[in-house]
């Protein structure tokens, strides 16, 4: 006869139920459902660790676009000017500056505008036909 109440099995179930703490209904009480739910939650966690990075980058770009437009530049012009000026601040830092250090951000924008004045205009490919 197979044992169903051994210490190893109890320890395994206890570990599962501990991870499922806070889940609702059978998702925290039924072994099979707990396993399925934990497996799915692990998949979501893995996926969303990458999605979070995308979401934050989108947020920083939105903030930088709004902040740079207040100073008369579009986001794309601002980023091109940063490259021309040799300023190597990332979007996260620039976004935080735009919110918390407006004077510092204005200095960066002024440096970008100065670099854009001296930078060659980007050449767009024109149709020759």
From TrEMBL:
One term under GO cellular component: ribosome
GO biological process: ribosomal large subunit assembly; translation
Transmembrane segments: none
One Pfam family linked to the record: Ribosomal_L20
Database matches in InterPro entries: Ribosomal_bL20, RIBOSOMAL_L20_CS, Ribosomal_protein_bL20_C
Matching SUPFAM superfamilies: Ribosomal protein L20
GO MF annotation list: rRNA binding; structural constituent of ribosome
Keyword list, A-Z: Ribonucleoprotein, Ribosomal protein, RNA-binding, rRNA-binding
Domain of life, per lineage: Bacteria
HAMAP family: Ribosomal_bL20
Annotated family: Belongs to the bacterial ribosomal protein bL20 family.
PANTHER family: 39S RIBOSOMAL PROTEIN L20
Its biological purpose: Binds directly to 23S ribosomal RNA and is necessary for the in vitro assembly process of the 50S ribosomal subunit. It is not involved in the protein synthesizing functions of that subunit.
Record's protein name: Large ribosomal subunit protein bL20
Species of the source: Rubripirellula reticaptiva
């Amino acid at each position: 006869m197979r044992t169903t109440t051994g210490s190893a099995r109890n320890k395994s179930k206890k570990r599962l139920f501990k991870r499922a703490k806070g889940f609702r209904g059978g998702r925290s009480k039924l072994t099979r459902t707990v396993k399925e739910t934990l497996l799915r939650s692990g998949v979501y966690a893995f996926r969303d660790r990458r999605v979070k990075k995308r979401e934050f980058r989108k947020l920083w770009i939105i903030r930088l676009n709004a902040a740079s437009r207040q100073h008369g530049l579009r986001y794309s012009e601002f980023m091109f000017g940063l490259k021309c000026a040799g300023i190597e601040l990332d979007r996260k830092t620039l976004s935080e500056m735009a919110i918390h250090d407006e004077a510092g951000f204005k200095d960066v924008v002024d440096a970008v505008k100065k670099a854009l004045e001296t930078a060659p205009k980007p050449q767009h490919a024109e149709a020759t036909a």
